[in-house]
Amino acid sequence: MFESFPGNSSERLDRKAYHQDFYRVFESGIRHLRKLERGQHFKEKGFASWEAFAAGEWEEALSLVEEKRKLYTEQFRDAADRGVLQRRLRVVEFPVTPYVQWEFHVLRLRVELGDNIRVIDARAISDIEMHRPVPEVVILGDRVMYEVLYDDGNAAGANRFTDPELIAETSTGFDTLYDRAEDFLGFFDREISPLPPPLVGDRVPAHHGQR
């Protein structure tokens, strides 16, 4: 699964070019969007909820998630109007990182508004990841695939792939894992909801690193 991904030819796009290309293709008549997320530590500068989370203001971070409701509602309405089925698969390592704990509260809002998100424990795909992690990708129909790139946790653009066979192979791998994955809300209620506020920012004691 994902055997052909490493070393396949691609075009490097900076963040602005990636977003422009993404929306151009998204609006061109595709029918499926698949998103596979693997990283456990990211930065989302400019997102008020993440800024509060990073500063150690957990309750404030949770309250600010709601600011995204209108934007997400519009995004899902647009996708539905275009006939695009969106699915997202989130790989989670244990113990859950502070970032993932925060992110899942954002994802819960997305699920509430209609996003199709499932979760898979990284331990369940250890056989697939013996040599490398599964790729961090966004696949738009059968036309284009992006390997999302990050610089010190910050979004930095993407590698753009157009090889039909590679896109088909990666899409099949995604579908296989998605079928094996767990319903988001069941996972959230069992693994995320009971967690205490994460120790980040100014709230991390000098003798205690992030978990």
From TrEMBL:
<dbReference type="InterPro" id="IPR049244">
    <property type="entry name" value="DUF6879"/>
</dbReference>
<protein>
    <recommendedName>
        <fullName>DUF6879 domain-containing protein</fullName>
    </recommendedName>
</protein>
<feature type="domain" description="DUF6879">
    <location>
        <begin position="21"/>
        <end position="188"/>
    </location>
</feature>
<dbReference type="Pfam" id="PF21806">
    <property type="entry name" value="DUF6879"/>
</dbReference>
